[in-house]
Amino acid sequence: MRNPYLPYPVRIESIVTETEDRNLKTFKFVFLNKEDEEAFKYTPGQFAELSVPGQGEIPIGIASSPTEKGFIMFTVNKVGRVSSFMHNMQEGDIMGVRGPMGNWYPWETLEGKNVVIVGGGFAFTTLRSSIVYMLHPDNRSRFGNIDVVYGARMPGLLLYKEELAAWEQRDDIGMHITVDSTDDPNWKYNVGFVPAVTKEKAPTAENSYAIICGPPIMIKFTLPVLTELGFPPERIISSLEMRMKCGIGICGRCNLGTEYVCKDGPVFTLQELAQLPNEY
Amino acid sequence: MSEIYISKEKFPEVVGQLMSHGRVFGPVFQGQFHEFARLDKPEDIDLSFQNTRLSPKDLFHPHSERMFTYSLAKDDPERSILKEAPKDYSPSVVLGIRPCDAKAFQLDDRNFDTETIKDPWWVERRKTTTLVGLACNDPCNTCFCTSMETGPFDASGLDVLMVDVGDGYVARSVTDKGKECLSTLKGVQTVPAQAAEKEAQAKKAAEESMGQVLDMKPIYEKNTLELFHDPLWEEVHFSCINCGTCTFVCPTCWCFDIQDEVQGDSGERLRLWDSCMFPLFTFHGSGHNPRSQKIQRVRQRFMHKLKYYPEKYKDGPACVGCGRCVKGCPVNIDIRHVARLMAASCSCPA
Ligand code: SF4
Ligand code: SF4
User: Helix or strand or coil: residue B62?
Assistant: First the structure.
């Protein structure tokens, strides 16, 4: 068995600044060893530890989709020591990735169902992975309607803008992009908070599952809307964030009662969360 | 199973034989306390102890351990590539470990050694180490092992159990590893009938000397969330100063941190004991902290030991009743009292 603490060495292939405030950058990594790329088999919803020698490790959701070959991608918010250091790294630099870790969105359960994705702010990374995955020609027919409500405070804070625009053009996905406010006269999409836009667009709850990721305040106000639309707690899926070190259920810090967010999560249904101490 | 008798006179010689086969660790009197340490010479071991102040978990899960090393030198083609730090996995014997501590390692195994994920360092050290335990003839008044599914003569976590019968030790193997260990020893005797008798008496006396017995069943039966929200934590956490002593000394507290340290162009990744008693333990990069309050941290420690672990693994508490946290706590928080409060909170009024 491979040492689970040993990262795969990767090279930074590209770095893209995503947001106007320059706090979010997207890193594309290429594995130095081909066999590592094959070993790193992931499913949308999983995360990995980004490992910067000399700085430390941070758990970050995988933003690429397994249908995208040759690289893996992560969008990193600049908050602490490791993420700030990463923001100053250069294309070509060598670092490490450990994973994939955790569970994933329940793709088998979602088969044949409508999927409603609700995202806010920078918590759109594994949701991007999921959308790219579902829209892939091999997968699109496995799911019913796909609706996406994605909001940010202002247009400049939306992630993956080119892809959002491309998805807007498609007829096999209902995109509902929104911003809290904007003074851009050319803004083509919605203005309003995510809960309000979700309510207005009212995707059907029938035969549907909702995946919701975002800041706690957005989740708090969107859950009642989903409930009102008819989504029961077992069909509302969310992904949690925690401080983590090992990422493999050993170091002890990310538990909610009996469950380790890194290993038993990060994906839980609302029904599952209701059974656990709310220490998140 | 094999059994032998080692007279106290012969004991140093037997220790010497073990030392000639590999590394031997045992209780050594250091300063004011007994601690587990590697023996330099057979006389270093001192079995006239009740228990060591720190648990021997350090032997499998060192307080600070080098995981990887790496170079950060600009011109090094291996720059930023982590290399496993070399470890000493040569065979070793832990001599004189208490039954409770050995049992604790079995509980810890569930964390470090699972079907899907194995902590390579813990697993390898466990594999190459033989635990030759010493039964407790004289348990401390802080011990409550018999309430925690182990006991002063519990052999279940050991490879060999030794019992002090006055003028010598009766040693019985429990596992094949233990049998092999005993088979290497020369100059030992078969167990005299009288010694076997004394052994049985010592066992009876030790078990009877364990005072109170805690009833853990109500805790296992009560709903987790009810216990979590019970007002009892208000009382329990009040005097705690979050010093972390309890987790530091505990043989079933395994939580750790991972840190990078750099000197010049070379760096290492370390793993260090950590504690759920510290606010940083759960502090997010964003500033959010799910256990920012002391009451949350204290509750986490007791709930993990007495409720979450048994519920997760469908087996006993993650506490072996060694009493170290009771002895070490500067404000006298006593896990036995907490267990009683937890159990009492569960009894339905008639
Ligand atoms: S919780 Fe206290 S009594 Fe129980 S094993 Fe740990 S140190 Fe010993
Ligand atoms: S030893 Fe006592 S005071 Fe210190 S953290 Fe543990 S319970 Fe709190």
Answer: coil
Cβ of B244 closer than 6 Å to ligand 2, yes or no, is yes
In this prediction, does ipTM exceed 0.90?
A: yes
CATH 2.40.30.10 for domain A8-101: yes
Q: How many CB atoms lie within 10 A of CB B83?
A: 12
The pTM score is: 0.93
Q: CA-based angle B156:B162:B165, to the nearest 5?
A: 135
Interval between CA B248 and ligand 2 midpoint (Å): 10
How many inter-chain contacts (A to B, CB under 8 Å) are there? 121
Q: Is residue B64 part of a domain?
A: yes
Least-confidence region, from B57-61, B205-209, B264-268: B205-209
Taking the C-alpha atoms of residue A21 and residue A79, their distance in angstroms, rounded to an integer, is 13
Flag if A53 and B72 touch (Cβ within 8 Å).
Answer: yes
User: Domain limits of chain A?
Assistant: 8-101, 107-233, 240-280
Interchain pair A4, B119: CB under 8 A:
yes
Q: Is B108 on the interface with A (CB under 8 A)?
A: no
SS3 B34: strand
**B323 Cα–ligand 2 center, Å:** 13
Percent composition of chain A: helix, strand, coil (DSSP 3-state, to 5): 25, 30, 45
Same domain, B339 and B280: yes
> What's the pLDDT tens digit per position in B127-151?
999 999 999 999 888 999 999 999 9
The structural architecture, per CATH, of the domain A240-280 is Ribbon (2.10)
Which residue range(s) make up the domain with B321?
217-344
Atom 6 of ligand 1, nearest CA residue: B250
Nearest CA to ligand 1 atom 7: B250
Contacting residues of A for B114, CB less than 8 Å apart: 249
